[in-house]
C-alpha cells in the first residue's frame, strides 16, 4: 500500500521505447472515491487550456522510482477524455471528516492505494479527537458513509472506524502517520 502523494513527482516512461514522457503532477480519483482513475501531467496552452493526463488503464507498473506506461500514445488531454466524474487529489486534501451528528473528527490528508490503484483508506492530516483514529491517523474506505461531494465534508461511521483501523493486505500493523 502507498499514499497517493507518493506518486506525485515520479517520472513516467514508456515500456515500448523507454522514452520519458513527463512527471506526475497530481492524481485523479473517481467521484465515489473507490479508484484512482488517472495521472495528471500538467496543463498547457494559453487560450485553450487543457490538462494532459494518462488514464489508469494505460499504466503498466507503479514502480518505486518511476511509472511505466504502454507507449507515448498513453498521454491524452482532458478534451479527448470525459473527466467530469474525476476528482484531483489536490481538490480532496483538507476536506473535513465528521460523524453523521456533525462532530468534527479530522481533516483528510491523502488517499491510501493498493497496488492496483484501488483506494483502501485515507490518511488524516489533522485529528481533533482522541482514541484509535488519532493513534492510527488513518481510516478505511469502508467506513465512509458520505464522500462529501455535496457539502465538502466527508461523513464516516465512527464506531466502525475505531474498530477496524486501516490494515495492509498482508496483515501487518495499521498504517500510522501519513
Describe the structure.
The protein has 178 residues and is mostly beta strands. The protein folds into 2 domains: 2-89, SH3 type barrels, CATH 2.30.30; 93-164, SH3 type barrels. 9% of the residues lie in helices and 42% in strands. A hairpin with a 5-residue loop joins β5 and β6. The longest helix has 7 residues, at 158-164. The chain is elongated, with a radius of gyration of 17 Å.
Estimate the helix proportion, in percent: under 10%
Biggest sheet layout: 7 strands, mixed
Gap between N and C termini, in Å?
A: 12 Å
Number of discrete domains: 2
Strand element count: 16
According to CATH, what is the topology of the largest domain? SH3 type barrels
Give a quick set of tags describing it.
disordered C terminus, 178 residues, seven-stranded mixed beta sheet, 16 strands, mainly beta, SH3 type barrels, single chain
Write the layout of secondary structure elements.
Elements lengths: L1 E2 L7 E4 L5 E4 L2 E5 L5 E9 L5 E6 L3 E4 L4 E3 L5 E3 L8 E3 H4 L3 E3 L5 E10 L5 E9 L4 H5 L1 E3 L3 E3 L6 E4 L1 H7 L14
Parallel strand pairs: 2-8, 11-16
Antiparallel strand pairs: 1-12, 2-3, 4-5, 4-10, 5-6, 6-9, 7-8, 11-12, 12-13, 13-14, 15-16
Amino acid at each position: 500500500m502507498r499514499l497517493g502523494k507518493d506518486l506525485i513527482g515520479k517520472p513516467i516512461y514508456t515500456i515500448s521505447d523507454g522514452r520519458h514522457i513527463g512527471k506526475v503532477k497530481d492524481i485523479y480519483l473517481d467521484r465515489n472515491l473507490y479508484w484512482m482513475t488517472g495521472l495528471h501531467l500538467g496543463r498547457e496552452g494559453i487560450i485553450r487550456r487543457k490538462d494532459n493526463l494518462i488514464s489508469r488503464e494505460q499504466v503498466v507498473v507503479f514502480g518505486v522510482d518511476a511509472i511505466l506506461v504502454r507507449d507515448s500514445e498513453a498521454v491524452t488531454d482532458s478534451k479527448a477524455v470525459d473527466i467530469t466524474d474525476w476528482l484531483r487529489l489536490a481538490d480532496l486534501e483538507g476536506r473535513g471528516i465528521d460523524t453523521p451528528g456533525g462532530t468534527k473528527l479530522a481533516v483528510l490528508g491523502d488517499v491510501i492505494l493498493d497496488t492496483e490503484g484501488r483506494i483502501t483508506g485515507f490518511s488524516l492530516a489533522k485529528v481533533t479527537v482522541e482514541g484509535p483514529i488519532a493513534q492510527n491517523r488513518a481510516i478505511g474506505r469502508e467506513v465512509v458513509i458520505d464522500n462529501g461531494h455535496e457539502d465538502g465534508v466527508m461523513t464516516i461511521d465512527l464506531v466502525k472506524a475505531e474498530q477496524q483501523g486501516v490494515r495492509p493486505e498482508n496483515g501487518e500493523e495499521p498504517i500510522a502517520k501519513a
